[in-house]
Specification:
S-adenosylhomocysteine deaminase, 14 helices, 26% strand, globular, TIM Barrel, 17 strands, zinc, metal ion binding
Amino acid sequence: MKAIISKYILDVNGIRENMAVLVEDNKIYDVVPKDKLKEYDVDEIFGGEHYLLIPGLINAHTHVAMTKFRGIGDDLPLDKWLNEVIWPMEKEWTPEEIYKWALIGIAEAIANGSTVINDHYFFADEIAKASQKLGIRAFIGQTMMDLVEFPIAEPEEGFKFFKRWKDRDEIVKPVLAPHATDTVSLELLKEIKEFSEEEKTLIHMHVSQSREEVLRVKKREKVLPVEYLKKAGVLNENFIGVHGVYLSNEEVKLYAKSGATLVHCAVSLAKLEGSVAPIISLWETGGNIAIGNDCAVSNNSLDMIQEMKFAAILNKVKSQDPTKASAKDVFYWATVGGAKALKIKAGLIEKEYLADLVLININKLHFTPKTNLLSHLVYSAKGSDVEKVFVNGKLIYDQGYFPKFKKFDYEISAEIL
């Protein structure tokens, strides 16, 4: 049995002081006062008095291999960025290159406190292998589209990938990943619906991420994107939509009622579209919200702590209300909201929850005066404050070192570059 000790434990249910988390196998066995540790058969102890322990952050939408393109195509509108810059480069991908750059992206995500990624990309087998190498919990879908000529996104490969990885790994799980409402036909969406119902799997898809997408769907289908999803039969609690920047008021109501999750990528779409999704409207209507970094091209980092801060602040600007979203709201979205979307028992530090945990060094100037640690985490912390990351009860990151991979961060980047 392992024990993880810290000065403070923080999740959305509040803060606890001078407690220890006992971990057995892949789950939290119990949370007990530190002075009771001697009553348990503990083999290893991690942490110390200068740490804050939080649930692992869940990056509910990302494209980890796109770290290769960081810094390319900045300051362009989304449609031009995608069609004229990104897609031409993506068509040149090879499996070997995807694997190498996925390692970089996953390592960066882990080092910044992510214990889970939900990735949507090409050559998904390589991303799955990279996830295994580093030990992150991963949900991975092979991008599928049929209304755009894109050879590495053939729909059949998405189904084949799912079948190859179903039940193959304890913490690397396949999902279905249709690209977007303007690149996937109604016929293909209906096929995906049937497959997902048979396999009881999640569907991960971009929705209403640009004005052009909305216009194309409306012209082709005579309905708005969320109405299109409902028409196809995929809009339900197993659907994870991403962005939703241009959802109408009626779409917000329809989406919330469906039980689907919307992943808020605040930095990415503010940068690409100069806009913020109606997240607060969806949240107040009862919808589930998660948070994602999107990719290192549009973000331009894979730092979920930074993402929480931007999500809170941009929504305050959008709503013109400094109370919306609160620090607690965005912390919920980054933990419990993501866990709910992915159907995993994570996001809280409680008995029987998955032992996906992060130790943050709070012996830093920007963590003083330690009077409001939730505020300090969301508004003051940095991904670089993360020192240790545990996934499924195992230490996968330790101050720059990745034990499962047996390499330091600088060794990984040096080998690839």
